[in-house]
Each structure stands twice: as C-alpha cells, then as structure tokens.
Amino acid sequence: MKAIGWDDVKGCAVLEKYCKKCGDFYPMTSEFWYRDKRSKDGFRHCCKGCYSELPSVIKRLQIF
Ligand SMILES: [Zn+2]
Predict the structure, then answer these.
(1) Cα(14)–Cα(62) distance, integer angstroms
(2) Ligand 1 mean position, distance from CA 7 (Å)
(3) Which of 9, 13, 45, 54 has its CA 20 to 30 A from that of 64?
C-alpha cells in the first residue's frame, strides 16, 4: 500500500486568501469570496461574510 505524500496533495491544494476584516483565511473560491474584476486576484478584499456586514450593503438590503 502506497502512503500519500505531500507531492500527491499539493497538486490539488486550494489557495487561501486572507480577509483583512475578520482576520481569517478562506479558500480562494467563489464560495467564500465575491468576484471583483477590478481586483488583482479577481476577488473582493473581504470575504462574503464581512461583505454582507458592510454599512453600504446593509443599507441597500434594508431598502429592498
Ligand atoms: Zn471576512
């Protein structure tokens, strides 16, 4: 039986992105981050959880 080494794992490892707002790391996928075409890495600077807590977003949600 062959043991699974790091070489087998790193091929499918998902990059993680740091959220400055909550100080946590999340996988760089659209599941955790909203996409932003103007951003360098293609995602917004804060995670989905923090984004929904932004004052401007809360304001918008309360109107509709
Ligand atoms: Zn966050």
Answers:
(1) 35
(2) 30
(3) 45
Give per-residue pLDDT as tens, 4-63: 665 555 556 778 999 999 999 999 999 999 999 999 999 999 999 999 999 998 898 887
Tell me the residue type at 15: L
**Secondary structure string (H, E, C) spanning the chain:** CCCCCHHHHHCCCCCEEECCCCCCEEECCCCCCCECCCCCCCECCCCHHHHCCCHHHHHHHHHC
How many Å lie between the centroid of ligand 1 and the Cα of residue 63? 24
